Give the backbone structure.
Amino acid sequence: MAQFWDRKEKPWIVTLFSLPFLWMLVSLLMGQYFPDPGKILMRLTGIWACVSLVLVLFMTPITKYTQFKFLARYRRFIGLSSFLYALLHMVCYLVLFAGLSWTWIASDLIEKPYIYAGVGALVILTTLAITSSKRMMKKLAKRWKPLHRLVYLSVLLVWLHLWWQIKSDTSILVWFSAFAIPLLLIRIPQTQSVRKYFLKKN
């Protein structure tokens, strides 16, 4: 536990990324989300999961091309925030929206295939959260980086999750696409397969 709090500012960083959750919890307890808290909280937790994912993607260009390289040390916090808000999104769906009704959930799995994309993204984020510790980095060694590149696949699955369910409100999809897609595109030239291809061409 001491290793987790190895920097004095870490409690403040944890507090910062917990603020949206605390805000949602207080608002819920104050009755601001009724009569349909499930629908509102699903939207809010989904938004914060998307925001955290975009911030994870931002870490690479910020630490590589700017003087703010120290921000790289907080990448794990941001990644864990994305996982936690995605998990809350799923919990809000199961408990508040579907009421733990397996008949309802089974019906949604047939009528709303975008759920599969969301679950796929959550499975990836769960795997990355479990393997994010320094101990797991040492244990996985060279396999750790390739595994954590799956974050890019999770971003694509989230984009598909948003696009597939789109109806009248396109705001979340538009904002997520505006930030996430360019950040994914700038990663393409840096991938080993692309670099090898162009080296062969030259």
Remarks:
- The radius of gyration is 19 Å.
- The longest helix spans residues 37-65.
- DSSP finds ten helices and no strands in the chain.
- The mean pLDDT is 85.
